[in-house]
Amino acid sequence: MSELEREIAAFRQFLLPQGLKLTRERESLLREIFATHYHFEADELLFRLKEKNVKTSRATIYRTLDLLVRSGLVRRVHLGEDHYHYERITRNSHHDHLICTACGAVIEFHDDKLEERQQEICRKKKFTPTFHNLQILGICDDCRQKGEQPDSPDRVKMIQEAAMSLRR
Length: 168
Known about the structure:
The protein has 168 residues and is α+β, with helices and mostly antiparallel strands. The chain contains 7 helices and 5 strands.
């Protein structure tokens, strides 16, 4: 059984106790998502499905995405814009994001030491984590070399300056 077929079976099992079915539209959407290897938007899925002559509505896409998020097969990600992006979840797929505020580039990264430090902080604070999403906003190297400036002020610098002024 392929990874995609396992994911379809898992989604079907998730839907059953809720009295829901894996419709053709939901399965087409799931297949499209698992053929995507980057962050995507709901409207982009609608456009791609229409290009493939798959009839579905925007409402069906949003409802199905909500179900996929609840099932753990898809993650909703806020990448600094006024709407969400989505990404499929695969085994060992945890990663964090660097987001360029000039061009919108999203750079994924994983750092074992950073993950260990976060777990250590949770243990120290007697906190049980269920999920985390680290996003660092800034300027990518390409934009920096072009002389691009951040769209928003450097909040880290502002916080540091405010802290320094409080100490005086």
